[in-house]
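cache lookup: miss for this entity combination. No prior model stored, computing from scratch. Input as submitted by user K.M.:
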Amino acid sequence: MSIERRHDREFVRTFFTSPTAVKGEDDSAKMLRRAAQLRGMQAPDVWVPDNEDATAPSMRDEGAENIVDVIAEHGADFPGEIHPRIVWHRDSPATRYRCFEHLLEIADPERGAIERIDGFVIPEVGDIDDWKKADEFITIVENEYGLEEGSLAMSVIVESGEAELALADLREEMGKPSNNLERLFLLVDGEVDYTKDMRAITPTGGLPPWDELRHNTSRGASAAGLIAIDGPYDDIRDVEGYHERMTDNQAKGMLGIWSLTPGQVAEANRSPLPPETGSWLLEVNGREVDLSEEDGRYVYDGGDVTLEETGDDQYRLRAGGDERDLDGDELAEELLDLTSYIPSLNDIVDSMEEFEAAKEAGKGAIAMERSATLVIDGVEVEISNDRMWDEATYQAAQTPITLFQDVYENRPDQHEELEELYGDDVVDRAMVVG
Amino acid sequence: MSIERRHDREFVRTFFTSPTAVKGEDDSAKMLRRAAQLRGMQAPDVWVPDNEDATAPSMRDEGAENIVDVIAEHGADFPGEIHPRIVWHRDSPATRYRCFEHLLEIADPERGAIERIDGFVIPEVGDIDDWKKADEFITIVENEYGLEEGSLAMSVIVESGEAELALADLREEMGKPSNNLERLFLLVDGEVDYTKDMRAITPTGGLPPWDELRHNTSRGASAAGLIAIDGPYDDIRDVEGYHERMTDNQAKGMLGIWSLTPGQVAEANRSPLPPETGSWLLEVNGREVDLSEEDGRYVYDGGDVTLEETGDDQYRLRAGGDERDLDGDELAEELLDLTSYIPSLNDIVDSMEEFEAAKEAGKGAIAMERSATLVIDGVEVEISNDRMWDEATYQAAQTPITLFQDVYENRPDQHEELEELYGDDVVDRAMVVG
Amino acid sequence: MSIERRHDREFVRTFFTSPTAVKGEDDSAKMLRRAAQLRGMQAPDVWVPDNEDATAPSMRDEGAENIVDVIAEHGADFPGEIHPRIVWHRDSPATRYRCFEHLLEIADPERGAIERIDGFVIPEVGDIDDWKKADEFITIVENEYGLEEGSLAMSVIVESGEAELALADLREEMGKPSNNLERLFLLVDGEVDYTKDMRAITPTGGLPPWDELRHNTSRGASAAGLIAIDGPYDDIRDVEGYHERMTDNQAKGMLGIWSLTPGQVAEANRSPLPPETGSWLLEVNGREVDLSEEDGRYVYDGGDVTLEETGDDQYRLRAGGDERDLDGDELAEELLDLTSYIPSLNDIVDSMEEFEAAKEAGKGAIAMERSATLVIDGVEVEISNDRMWDEATYQAAQTPITLFQDVYENRPDQHEELEELYGDDVVDRAMVVG
């Protein structure tokens, strides 16, 4: 039997935390209440009323109360899933007991919130036996309140070396009859505490990139049918940096990320979706430069790559410190090596439809052509690239489409924005391809 | 007891796949037949008649027939090993049953192919228990046909997170009496399907680098006495990119790579062998530039590092944005830091012989000197470097020599090309050193 | 129960090996004797009389004798810990037996050395069962000589794929009643032999970076309460390269490194401690350039970033190939993105004190401001950055302070040098904060 995802969402782009109780406000639940009313691209796939680090320890009992109140009032209308984070620590039985008390309180069906809650987020987990302790508390609570066993999801924050090691055990442990770990949903990296736990130091105090942690989280999610989410990006002003981090994550199979503000939510909801228009990139001194489109031609107007026509079908190209004399064919070949294309949603749908038609007609592999007119220093060059598509290419290309479909099905509140972005026609075709 | 390699080859440079049956040709086995007749540097160490992804699903029964026919006819003369790939999927019992049927068909001794087949390649494996299922089918087939148990090798394609996790279990599982996993031979990464399984996305649709997967494959191979092979490099035109990938792989201990064409086979057979001549590299703006040799001197003729003599034993060096005034010793020291040397096969043999003689004479460590005359902007500078060699350095340097010896012993069809490349004398000395 | 460190040192910066017996000297123990008398920043946290690779095989029996003699004479006064390395190999029972003999000899209480020895270093370990064999020999020796079981530490050199895999088993195996693996202390990478074991090849013969090995070692140490140490850096002349390697290690949580000379010891003892003065970095073409301080302002005097005032509150900034016209606020914002600050020990202590006071006053998070005057092409710009500190930030920032405190408590011989470097006041405050 293949691993089946047991949850409604196959993809989660955004994990947005809100403090549950803020001191010194008239209404300590103000931030919860505001978050609960987010809609559209500013509303996350998973909203996390955060009764742990975002809330002062002395405010957490009030926070648990606020969670119940706000979700009972606004939960039914919230467009994403709701997964409160409650306290937990692998090294503190007192904290774990407090977790159990908050669980009992928040999940009490008489309070009217639990039917709107999809699951809970458990921070600071240790090795797999520690995960089982949290799972057991949730099982007891489900049983106590007559909820179906395993119906509440459990997501964990991976923020210790022990928890990272546990990621390799999930697939084996999730099948065992003495636990309900099949309730697992999100594996979320928590790099600030992980950095502390690993005792890492950087000169500026910035976080290390933790490539291996992110890989291992993504792999653990893949092997156990779960969803991998990256931790918070602290520098809220730095939108470009946030996008670079997301692109890096996506190449690891980690398609979701923590968001700290509605602005970050909107960026992160958008990031793993294909762009609305395709673009050509030119490699200039080891960096990829986006070419600007003018009347269907793609123009490089920097000074670091130069091109001149030196005679009949003769060109001189200077790039990366090299200067070369080339004929037209050599030039096109050379520029093909230096360029790459980022397909739009429409392009991906086109290619998939074309491959599906070819398969229908009995072909196993076809060449997809992509051509463009480049303009460098006023000189026009036609380039054209064939890429072979077979079943594997087709399936790998499908990930952004499956993601798009998952979003569109589960987030009606984003339909308008998505249709405005891509156009109705592309959205319709994207929903039936694959 | 140390891990012993159970197979003839200790190293495999090339894993070349051929479609087993192509529709619309007079002879559907044409590509198999052509591949079976490759010789010399164009012939792979391991040839893989590919009855999985390279062949259309509807053609695979005919493909199994073609495998038998072509190997029965040409297998005896093929200079490399022969390991057909047959269908398998961790999530599909139907595909696994089809695997068993093809195994029974291809391995039937009456058909005359099995005595020329070294083993089988199993794609799409899952966790270790899934590997055992394939192993068990091969055991049954061996028993049915009177072949020695464990005599058929089994190689796997690692193309899922589950299979990547299984790499850590091999050493422990291979010893167990209830399986014959000692038949394992190659661990081959399959990055296209792995990318799909990990649900990774890149803007251009290109494959992520998957550094951790390659490390874990190489480490799994090292711990279990197996051989690690990287997956296909799709862009067949891009010879430079293929070489960069191989250099990167080799630094991870992954010395073999998939090849899609005889041209790629020739490049990949050559890549892990030491070069025929040594060369000096100069670091220029963070990149390594190959210096051109002229009359035994190594000349930099780019413009990004400049040198002038400003007085008696006084020099001005400009490199990496810095300008510095140095005397002759300081200059030599500085240039030593900026240069590195790539030794030839002859250089490596020289150093090993020198260390062996020193060891014979009772010394545990000796300094190996390497000197050269550099020319920058017409100014000549002598540099000289001492590197300490001890037993560990000696043994680490031995890997390319052991590889060379393995190739030379197992591939008589490449003797002529190797002797032409390196000269008879160097080849003879390389075969006795170490 | 949380993992407790069972050893005196929570941090080890330096692991310094000395040959135990050198042929052809009047006193074969000369190098041991010299090393035993190092003090201050040149003396390592862990000194390793090396009866394995640093000593010729034929000299190792004499080496074991020298270890006993020199430690009996000088051990009581040595300021760091003493952990001799003795022979071992996962693949050789003969070598393991020799290990046992040397253990019995060196640990004999009548010889007067063992009371000064903190533990032993075991090289070339294999999988976890192999580690247990070494542990068992130490247990027998402890019992034989009336030493407390588990009182001798055991450190291992991770230099094989098998040993790297064992790092994931430590936490589980260390609790078992049939071993004394709680004696484990340091996990030390040995990249030269690891490279050989992984059969990796680089063109120049230099070592691969082995990022994943270092991560896995650091994670294994973190999960099991141990200390991770990187292997030797061969190029002794290359101080800058040694520092770059240490900075890279520190970002992985690997705070200690092997040292081959007292000069390297001094550099490595210094490297993980915060600097004595803070500094501003400017990102120039992808690299970080240290700005020079002049009268409290930070000046960039390279030519790759240019700035001019073009009008009233109008500026033109050229950086990274881009030219932009900005008003004063935009300019400050842009430069803030391009700069980062490396805090001094004093800065870190300041921030921690400030956060502690805020916490005392009931606040969970505060903004830490950092401002500076930058000068580019004579134009002055004020920049100012707020960073939010919460409990997690505070605790992650604490690592260098905890390290400093551990050093100061355990190494009285370095007090003078530390006070000279940082000033008495900063040292006193650093010892009470946190």
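stored under new cache key. Chain B has 15 helices and 18 strands.
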